[in-house]
Design brief:
742 residues; alpha/beta
Length: 742
């Protein structure tokens, strides 16, 4: 966030006299720091109290560490080697201590001379290097070090105060070198223009930005750090919320065609055929959507719904309302399987109302077309023609809908399913297809904690469907500890047979496909062990093709078992799903292609193999595929992880609650929120440095209120030059990251 010209200075120039171009190059390439402002916003990860060493027992293997300690002992040894055959090889062994433990440092060859002179017993220093093991003892080989002398003026100045900042560092650039560089440019922090309006800052008792930067990089007390962090959190939350508020404000200024359904049109005819009444939640959310559609600026709404809460029905009614009003509606799905599934279920729900222009179609009917990347040329040509002539009122498709060739007669509404798979830019590309900006409805079945919704989808109004439709059954979930209790796994397959015997069907989900195209790296990544004893994590994840074969020959012999995965030809995938939906297949062994939107009410059981390899939200999504009819659902989470492991605790959390919002909080707490935020946008959201989305809920909510007030009063921010500069920097970063992702 480079705030003024002084802070926009490239690092090479101001630092040339001190660090030179080589250091600036390392900072740019390895830490992404290009300007003085970037460097000032590279905050310490934590602080060492002077003389306190990271507990030696806790030193992580193979990680880069920085420790502060005193030299206890230093010995120079000679040895013979290939390079020094006459016993002239030299090895310096230095033992350092912090009073609670000891650590050995080793230096070899010509590298021993300087440390031999400097690292005398009693000397205190900061040491940095990679922790390794030699002769069953922890050691740092050739660590970089910085002597802590209290006698020279520079040391007193550099290390004043008891707190030593430790920065996110790399092997090429140690923490204290970054610290030294920051001390060099710290005087420039006085020029930082404050993005927060004075009234806001004073009203909340926050320190100024220059003061916050000084305190975070050179704190004298822990209170200094707390003051600085509180202030810098507000910067991040507020600038981001202003960006979103301006986006909402700009969207509200755009013209749109109001779309009000005809009194006795398609929507009325559709509602009259529904075999059930809408839930209160569906009625309330539908009203919010219809009110938005009736205005002359575009709707921008996020529809969050628990798995199986009937979001698709709400979205379909909105689409029918727009068709009624003479427009077209497009539904964008993240995968071909999901697009085909949506197309099938929409056509089924609409019956002859989906047969526009066909014999036997209702006079109110419209045409519902499917458009995906793998369609044949003739079908694709016909679909494109139906869109441009307006013959098709509803189109359902994958990102193929965004292509330049696709043109609409009058696009009135865009519905995006599973928003976290599409970036803002893709959303905008589809919106650009309308003569005037179309209305936008974004759906997600991944419940999102309120603060994440405010941070990631802050440019959208939010509606929540948290009520399950009548007739939906509860889902019982259990963890099956396959390694501790193998008979539990045998019982799981018996339960599947019992469900099939009762006339139902089952899913078995595996993390991997298992054909030659499987990426071994993927298996390695998924199977990376958290600790040495976790044998379960060392083998590759279970694969669909292998598991299907074992089940068909073994515990599920005699049942019809089929497979479904992402690398099958789209027509084959569609055929498998049709057979399963028709009840011709007893058990479907699949990857996560069935995660969202697949709706087979007769499927009552799901067994998830290697469940510990999936995320919490993903497990919740998968589980939502069963219990969709009147019979109760059963979800069995199979894992070989030991009972005390974090992975098992995560599975127990999933088994004990069906509340997706609660699970999404657990998920977010366990993962770096950058993963969650980065998935949802083009990348700028991962630029949060001190703001933690779950912990700082209040800051985000208050920042949003303040941002809305500021933008409403002054949309151009003409009275806030510092805020404009900070905003430009944030949006530059967003654009840059989007371009990098292509």
């Amino acid at each position: 966030m480079d705030l003024v010209p002084a802070l926009n200075e490239p690092l090479e120039r101001p630092l040339k006299s001190v660090l030179g171009p080589a250091t600036a190059k390392v900072m740019a390439e390895h830490l992404g720091l290009h300007t003085v402002g970037d460097l000032l916003h590279h905050y310490p990860r934590r602080y060492e109290e002077r003389g306190q060493l990271t507990h030696l027992a806790d030193l992580p293997m193979d990680e880069h560490v920085t420790v502060v300690a005193q030299v206890a002992d230093a010995r120079l040894h000679s040895f013979a080697s290939a390079k020094a055959p006459r016993g002239k090889g030299q090895r310096l062994e230095v033992t350092i201590t912090d009073g609670s433990g000891r650590l050995q440092l080793v230096f070899f060859g010509s590298g021993v001379h300087k440390p031999h002179k400097e690292l005398l017993p009693g000397t205190r220093a900061m040491f940095s290097g990679k922790v390794s093991v030699f002769n069953r003892r922890l050691q740092l080989a050739h660590p970089a070090y910085e002597l802590l002398r209290a006698d020279t003026e520079e040391s007193v100045e550099s290390w004043a105060g008891a707190l030593i900042p430790l920065y996110p560092a790399t092997a090429k650039m140690e923490s204290w070198k970054i610290g030294k560089a920051i001390q060099t440019v710290l005087p420039d922090a006085r020029d930082a223009v404050d993005p927060l309006p004075d009234s806001l800052r004073e009203g909340r008792g926050l320190v100024s930005l220059p003061e916050a930067l000084l305190k975070i990089h050179r704190p004298h007390t822990k209170a200094d750090i707390a003051d600085a962090r509180a202030r810098l959190k507000w910067d991040e939350a507020f600038v981001l919320q202003v960006a979103l508020a301006r986006r909402r404000h700009a969207d509200a200024q755009l013209p749109a065609v109001p779309r009000r359904p005809a009194p006795d049109g398609l929507l009325t005819a559709f509602d009259a055929r529904l075999p059930f009444t809408l839930t209160e939640g569906q009625q309330k959310v539908s009203k919010e959507i219809f009110d938005d559609l009736a205005t002359d600026h575009p709707m921008h709404r996020l529809l969050q719904g628990e798995v199986g809460s009937g979001k698709t029905l709400v979205a379909l009614r909105a689409m029918l309302a727009v068709v009624d009003a003479g427009g077209q509606a497009a539904l964008l799905a993240p995968t071909e399987v999901l697009a085909q599934q949506h197309h099938r279920s929409v056509v089924e729900m609409m019956g002859d109302l989906a047969e526009g222009g066909m014999l036997g179609g209702s006079e109110l009917a419209t045409k519902v077309v499917l458009l995906t990347g793998s369609m044949g040329a003739a079908a694709r040509r016909q679909a494109l023609l139906d869109l441009v002539t307006g013959e098709a009122g509803i189109v359902i498709g994958t990102h193929a809908l965004i292509e330049d060739k696709v043109q609409f007669h009058d696009l009135g509404l865009v519905v995006v399913d599973e928003q976290h798979r599409f970036g803002v830019e893709q959303r905008d590309a589809l919106r650009g297809k309308g003569k005037q900006p179309p209305h936008l409805l974004v759906m997600t079945a991944t419940p999102i904690p309120r603060t994440v919704a405010m941070t990631v989808f802050g440019d959208l109004e939010t509606s929540v469907l948290d009520q399950l439709p009548a007739g939906r059954s509860p889902i019982a979930s259990h963890v099956v500890p396959a390694a501790d209790k193998p008979h539990f796994l045998a019982r799981a397959w018996e339960r599947v047979r019992e469900e099939v015997a009762a006339g139902h069907q089952a899913y078995v989900v595996c993390p991997r496909i298992g054909d030659d195209g499987d990426e071994p790296a993927d298996a390695k990544k998924a199977g990376r062990g958290k600790s040495a004893e976790d044998e379960a994590e060392k083998r590759p994840p279970l694969a669909v093709l292998e598991v299907a074969e074992q089940l068909a020959k073994g515990p599920l012999s005699g049942l019809t078992v089929e497979v479904l995965h992402g690398r099958m030809h789209p027509d084959d995938k569609d055929a498998v799903m049709r057979r399963f939906a028709a009840g011709d297949t007893d058990v479907l062994v699949a990857t996560t292609v069935i995660e969202v939107g697949v709706n087979v009410p007769n499927a009552t059981a799901m067994v998830i193999m290697d469940a510990d390899r999936f995320g919490v939200s993903q497990l919740h999504q998968l589980r939502g595929r069963v219990g969709r009819g009147s019979a109760p659902g059963l979800c069995l989470l199979v894992s070989e992880m030991p009972e005390a492991s974090a992975a098992r605790q995560r599975l127990t959390a999933v088994a004990t609650t069906l509340d997706g919002f609660e699970l999404s909080r657990i998920d977010l707490e366990q993962r770096r929120e950058g993963d969650v935020l980065g998935q949802a946008q083009s990348g700028a959201r991962t630029s949060l440095r001190v703001l933690a989305v779950i912990e700082d809920e209040e800051v985000i909510a208050e920042a949003r209120q303040e941002a809305v007030a500021v933008v409403a009063a002054d949309p151009e921010l003409s009275a806030y030059p510092g805020l404009r500069t900070a905003l430009d920097a944030l949006l530059d970063e967003e654009r840059e990251q989007y371009l990098e992702k292509g």
